[in-house]
Design goal:
2 copies of one chain form a homodimer. By secondary structure, chain A is an alpha/beta fold. Chain A is 30% helix and 24% strand. Chain A has 4 domains: 6-79, Ubiquitin-like (UB roll), CATH 3.10.20.880; 87-224, Domain of unknown function (DUF4445) (Nucleotidyltransferase, domain 5, 2-Layer Sandwich); 246-280 and 389-449 and 459-505, ATPase, nucleotide binding domain (Nucleotidyltransferase, domain 5); 288-382, no CATH class. The first copy, chain A, has helices at 24-32, 45-57, 127-134, 139-162, 178-185, 234-243, 325-337, 383-407, 421-426, 429-434, 452-462, 464-476, 486-494; strands spanning 6-12, 61-69, 72-79, 87-93, 97-104, 110-117, 169-176, 207-208, 221-224, 252-257, 261-266, 271-276, 297-303, 310-314, 322-323, 356-359, 362-368, 379-382, 416-420, 446-450, 477-480. In chain A, helix 3 (127-134) crosses helix 4 (139-162), helix 6 packs across helix 11 (452-462) and helix 8 packs across helix 13.
Chain lengths: 515, 515
């Protein structure tokens, strides 16, 4: 039995008469109350007239639409009969990309999927630029309108795919990082990027879609996954919900790499989390030849150690356009294993074949020649991109070691490591281990969980327990601030080699001593 | 200890730090929670940014403004320090007149009083005309704007008198009849005057002033006294609160005469109520020379039985302008006692002196000659006004007998009769008894309670128990519909004599048999 964020409840009220002069709305509430174990419904002022009029127009019989707002039933609409489908939208509100599903709230079935670039990108590719833009006159308002516009476009696409009208979307759950949630709510993000990095709000109370000018049903409840801090957002809470990290006896870890890398470790007793800038090189649009994991992205690369021949797979099987995060990791790991780069991540011209060419800004490794690519341009990896990846992988490992060290848990104690996001969906953990990005554990420990931010948002739509859990998680998670952590800085330096300064930490990875 | 509708609560939250990355709003809620025995506060979306910004700007220390909405604390504002005065407006939303007080919510003291004509009068003097007007295009919107405009004007006047800004009015309680509440909320009153007379809503949930475009503080809670039915509004519930009718062991009665006469009888065990059109002749502006009980209104009249000389008192002691309800009752009772009208309420020219003149539409009794009046026009009572008063007094007595008969209570069983409204404030119960309008009981039984609608609204502002009681009253009161009551029609006919067809019911009143 699902406990969705909004329900349609059949009601047949007694007809008004001289002997029963109960007001229309009071009559509806009275008829509804026995079916609501969770309290007497309230009607917000902006829905008052509509609900009462529609109840009367329907002859006092039909279906009440009731939002489950933090346990209080909020009566927002009345239909002549139970709707064939009651739909909700689950939204992963990413910095670069939005992904959403339309969910049948009665069955939990996914009715449609869609994704879209974040319309805020025109004001800045990264969050910091946008936070600075928000400080300008009208800046915050522009960013807010842009994100609301994107969400509305996405709703339109879900509507097109599903055949339901946008106004039939009667609930929205939103899972995003803390900055995106601030922009979405039109509240000042100024302090998010300034020490001590305090959000305006971590756990906003739910509101109605109409208050945000969303083009779905105006009375749809908008339920935002709460955040733990500026750098640990609702998207991660969503990931915890999706993975079940907070309900397991064994200690597990969740890694989500997006714009930042966010990591949480714990079990049903305790949870500790941190976040750091380990993501950029792996995110589409940051590395020069990097792209989002989508059609045409090279997701896997192999280099034959004997012939040096390169083979690759693209998402969608078409001609390659660029490298997504997993392709980049594969490529660099293979370049290391074939000794075409050294342990510092620098090209070794003496070992490289004719694919290494001298570009205007230094060496470039040609992954795909122009004649074989989608747009006639070669797909290359240059030293700048390589350096960025080295920083990312060092940051990632430093984050993981700092965090586990904080709670005295060894990597070997981890029962499972969930890898979330586009990163987790395509990455080969083996190659990430080769680079020294992920700890050298049995591959069975690693479990990709896909877009757990979206999966968690879906659960918020249909399970009251998930909604309650999300709020408990905010209280339960201890957040470790890395921005000022000395241990992290030290560990970061130690991680800037392949696989690591201390190569004994990675027994399974060949170590090429000296050069 | 008062439990007002809005409170200012001193808060000193720990400062944010790297070790404590709680969001601003979450920090405020956490600091506030121990001081709120009645639950965790929620922040409505429209106040989110403002509360968070002001809390931070105040250095995380100051005063939280918390609305007590049906037991849920709603956090709506933050001030750098406790305000010197936290003020709320209590409003009697009358059909012809609005009256309001500004109340200090910490002490309960009344800071200012004001009253104003209802701006809706331009669309119709009576409710029925306005309900018909509401059916026109834009009609309801016009009526809504008119009443909101009047309330805003009244708030301005309270602000002028008290020296507080309108935006410092942080709560509003509204006590009005059911139609006025519909206009105030901008909801369709169509069915209020059509059988079976069903309101759109009897007990609306509270909202915020900004949602109604009220010019007081936008986050002020607006608490509307619930109604029992179309003809038994929140103003009466307010009267019950003010009189304590629902808390007494002895059976008492409350009579409120405004546009309608509304009567409720009962005790702490049971309550029964009804309403009827007994008011019009007693309301200012309806009788030709009638006026509201205000400066220049003749409130009391005596006729010397020997000399036939008339003496009178005006409100404010100035020159007379017209007759208010109590003056009208006094005058007609004296005319009866001096036999200048007969038991059917008709002028007796054979007994009248030179004050009875023949006007264009029949006899007129000159109460005040033009030379002695405020505007040079004589104050007169004509047969038309007299007939209207006879109908009103008959309706009133019929209502009282029908209602008490319904529950098997004799008038003599009534411990006390509270008389509310402008009617109750100035009326002489003795003269009303002479007319046969009120039962012939010991005068000590009658207790004027003034504008109990306003007094009840004041209690709503400062006592949570009164707010809870008001909602219980809606469930507790049985409403007797008179519009289709045969017994009432019969009793009405029997009451159209002075004092009554059955004069033995009024042993204290001289009966002038035959003519």
């Amino acid at each position: 039995m699902l406990t969705p964020l909004v329900r349609a409840i059949a009601v047949a009220a007694p007809l008004p008469s001289l002997g029963d002069n109960t007001g229309d709305l009071d009559r509806l509430k009275k008829a509804l109350a026995p079916q609501l174990s969770w309290g007497m419904p309230v009607v917000p002022y902006q829905r008052l007239g509509k609900v009462a009029e529609r109840f009367r127009a329907a002859g006092f019989t039909g279906a009440a639409i009731v939002n489950d707002m933090l346990g209080t039933p909020v009566l927002v609409d009345f239909l002549p009969q139970l709707p064939p489908v009651l739909a909700g939208m689950a939204l992963d509100l990413g910095t670069t990309h939005l992904e959403a599903t339309l969910v049948d709230l009665t069955t939990g079935a996914v009715l449609a999927r869609a994704d879209l670039e974040n319309g805020q990108i025109r004001y800045g590719a990264d969050i910091l630029t946008r936070i600075h833009h928000a400080a300008k006159d009208e800046g915050l308002a522009e960013l807010h309108r842009a994100i609301i516009g994107s969400v509305n476009d996405l709703a339109l696409e879900l509507s097109r795919v599903s055949g339901l009208a946008r106004a039939e979307i009667r609930a929205l759950s939103v899972s995003g990082n803390t900055s995106m949630v601030h922009f979405f709510l039109n509240i000042n993000p100024h302090h998010l990027c300034r020490e001590p990095y305090i959000p305006m709000v971590n756990a906003p109370d739910p509101c109605l879609a109409g208050e945000l000018k969303l083009a779905i049903h105006p009375a749809a409840p908008v339920w935002l996954l709460p955040s733990v801090g500026s750098y640990f957002g609702g998207d991660l809470i969503s990931g915890v919900l999706a993975s079940g990290l907070d309900q397991q006896a064994e200690t597990c870890m969740l890694i989500d790499v997006g714009t930042n890398a966010e990591v949480i470790v714990g079990n049903r007793e305790w949870l500790i989390a941190c976040a750091g800038a380990a993501g950029p090189a792996l995110e589409g649009g940051v590395a020069r030849m990097g792209m989002r994991a989508g059609p045409g992205a090279i997701e896997h690369v192999q280099i034959d150690p004997d012939s040096g021949e390169i083979s690759y797979q693209t998402i969608g099987k078409g001609k390659p356009k660029g490298l997504c995060g997993s392709g980049l990791i594969d490529l660099v790991a293979e370049l290391y294993l074939t000794r075409q780069i050294d342990i510092r991540g620098k090209f070794r011209p003496q070992a490289a074949g004719d694919r290494l060419i001298q570009g205007s800004e230094g060496y470039q490794f040609v992954v795909v020649e122009g004649k074989n690519s989608a747009d006639g341009q070669p797909v290359v990896l240059d030293q700048v991109d390589l350096d960025a990846l080295m920083r990312s992988k060092a940051a990632m490992y430093a984050i993981l070691t700092t965090l586990t060290n904080q709670v005295g848990v060894a990597f070997a104690d981890l029962h499972r490591i969930y890898v979330a996001g586009a990163f987790g969906r395509h990455i080969s953990p083996r190659q990430a281990i080769v680079l020294g990005m992920l700890p050298d554990l049995d591959l069975a420990v690693y479990e990709p969980v896909g877009n757990s931010s979206l999966v968690g948002a879906q659960r918020i739509l249909i399970e009251r327990a998930a909604r309650e859990r999300s709020l408990e998680l905010v209280r339960k998670i201890t957040y470790l601030e890395l921005n000022v952590n000395q241990e992290f800085m030290l560990r970061f330096s130690g991680s800037r080699f392949i696989p690591h300064t201390d190569h004994t930490l990675f027994p399974s990875v060949p170590f090429f001593d000296g050069d």
